[in-house]
Amino acid sequence: MGKIKATVIISIYNNFSFLNLVLAGFERQTNKNFEIIIADDGSKKEVVENIQQSINQSSLSIKHVWHEDKGWRKNEILNKSIQASMTDYIIFVDGDCIPHKSFVQEHLTNKVKNTILAGRRSNLSKFISDKLTYENVRNGILEKRFAIVGLLLKSMIGGSHLENAVFFKSSHIRKKINKKDKGVLGSNFSLHKSDIMEINGFDERYVKPAVGEDTDIEYRLRNAGKKVKSVKHLAIQYHLFHKKLERDKANMEYLNHVIENKTTFTPYGINK
Question: Is residue 253 part of a domain?
Answer without folding.
Answer: yes
